[in-house]
Write a structure and sequence with these properties.
Blueprint: H1 13-28, H2 34-44, H3 48-56, H4 67-71, H5 75-90, H6 97-109, H7 114-128
């Protein structure tokens, strides 16, 4: 897991918006994997049961509702969000086209540069590779 994760422990609008974006990404491919649930739970300091329940009910998974909050994030927080989205998408070793599309859409909507998006994805992928 990458060290660069958003602050999700607080119950702030930013933390809530980030949690919603992560859940939306995890359900984008219509397959909810345990490793994704566990990763989101760690990032947001939530229980896996809470995350799974939200995702199964498809509640709190609409990024459009929190887009203004995500757009207002500090550039460093946007970078952490993008890296965290990549982490959730790649942690199951199966980058689905719907997940990748959503990452690109969120990135575009929050004004994150495409080359930085690709670089962030490469960094996360490298951090998930097994060590020597």
């Amino acid at each position: 897991m990458t060290k660069d994760k958003p602050s999700g422990a607080e119950n702030t609008p930013d933390a809530e918006a980030i949690a919603i974006a992560l859940k939306a990404l995890a359900v984008a491919d219509r397959i909810i994997r345990r490793v994704e649930i566990e990763t989101i739970a760690k990032i947001t300091n939530s229980t896996t049961a809470t995350i799974a329940q939200d995702m199964l009910a498809r509640q709190a998974c609409d990024v459009d509702d929190v887009l203004p909050i995500l757009q207002a994030l500090h550039p460093d927080a946007k970078r952490r969000l993008i890296k965290t989205l990549w982490l959730v998408a790649l942690v199951d070793n199966d980058l689905d086209q719907a997940e990748e599309k959503l990452i690109y859409q969120i990135s575009d909507l929050i004004g994150f540069r495409r080359r930085d998006l690709i670089k962030a994805g490469q960094e996360v992928a490298k951090s998930l590779e097994p060590g020597p």
